[in-house]
């Protein structure tokens, strides 16, 4: 038995001490020849700003890269990409827009070019010689490129990722995902939504698996493992199995929202790559708009395509937290299958439910989502309570929520709290049902799914009990009591103790 144990421990020791081939620290990306159709000088200056940021986030590229940038001014964004077997990036739709706007709106022309450079150069960091390392399915490649894009844009002060993409994580999985390939395979609205979802997934994983919220170093660790796999296998077109083998040892004992980070990650909506064929209706929000979209998902035996359903009538409705209809309109889908109406004003941090209905081929289609104006500040965690079908609970139930941190607000179906930067998890408690929430150095919107039996229990609570849980009436159990209150309470306790001692008969002198 002792020998077996010794061998077992030796095996474990060897497993965790195998030397990993690390990316050489001297590897660098530089820009080579740039097409005359593009502003070469400005692009080179911009590259000198972002290259150090890229290395900080990514680590060094997988090899030394001298990247040539060509332009296809007759193409679309779907034509943008890298040339096989050479270190060349072709900008298509971006180059076309630059030519269109460089005189009439030069700021717009070059800004859209810069924002796309950030994303595409993130892909370019994976060049191993003249071949780019890629994973199939596509959501893996795009997710890590979006993470780099988001972090670089934030470092440059270009934009804040915000919270809107987090709502799309909770949309119907089969509708927004369901295909292996993106680009022209996806209906236009869906194409943007899957990017939002994979961005949310990879930002959350980055937060959970990094050393700390102040040191988001997980991507560098991951890239060394990818480099090691490429060197050991000689392959650059890596499979899902390769990727799972790379990630598995890196996520041991890591958790996201209270469960295994590995399981959470590989259960994200984009892992559903074989969706239900037939007609679909989806719904989402964008700044100032509610967008319903319709498509027919078909298969040619090799690939799955989403064909836009244009010219169909869709009724879109928004209802606020107390079931008041905020807007209801029937509109036709355009050539891309999209139907748009203005997003109604609903007040800050106030939940609304959004619904779309239509009939196609005599069959009704329905889509639902929830939305509120979630605060975009990096320190804030906000959210709602939903049932197991994804439907928001009655808005008053949010008052029953407790936490290990103070809430800023719990009303109208929405909770918000400020989370210290160093705090990586928050525990929510709904009638003793507990949920751990991962919180990185980014704003996050979280929908807490409440099991059916706790929803039933909430329905048994009196209005008096529910109202006692509002911010103005009660602090949550285990919430941190303000320091000043603790200090005053302590002083009062000491004063009372002193009075008791001095008035005690044992302290009186015998006369």
Task: Characterise the protein shown here.
The protein is α+β, with helices and mostly antiparallel strands and 511 residues long. The chain has three domains: 29-271, Neutral Protease, domain 2; 278-371, Immunoglobulins (Immunoglobulin-like, Sandwich); 380-481, Sandwich (Immunoglobulin-like). The protein contains 14 helices and 25 strands. Helix 4 crosses helix 5 and helix 9 (218-233) packs across helix 10. The protein is globular and about 70 Å long.
Briefly summarize what is shown.
With about 500 residues, the protein is of the alpha+beta class. It has helices spanning about 1-15, 40-60, 95-100, 105-125, 140-155, 165-170, 175, 190-210, 220-235, 240-245, 260-265, 450-460, 465, 485-505; strands at about 30-35, 65-70, 80, 90, 125-130, 130, 135, 235-240, 255, 260, 280-285, 290-300, 305-310, 315-320, 325-330, 340, 350-360, 365-370, 380-385, 400-405, 410, 415-420, 425-430, 435-440, 445-450. The model is unreliable at about 1-15 and about 475-510 (pLDDT under 50).
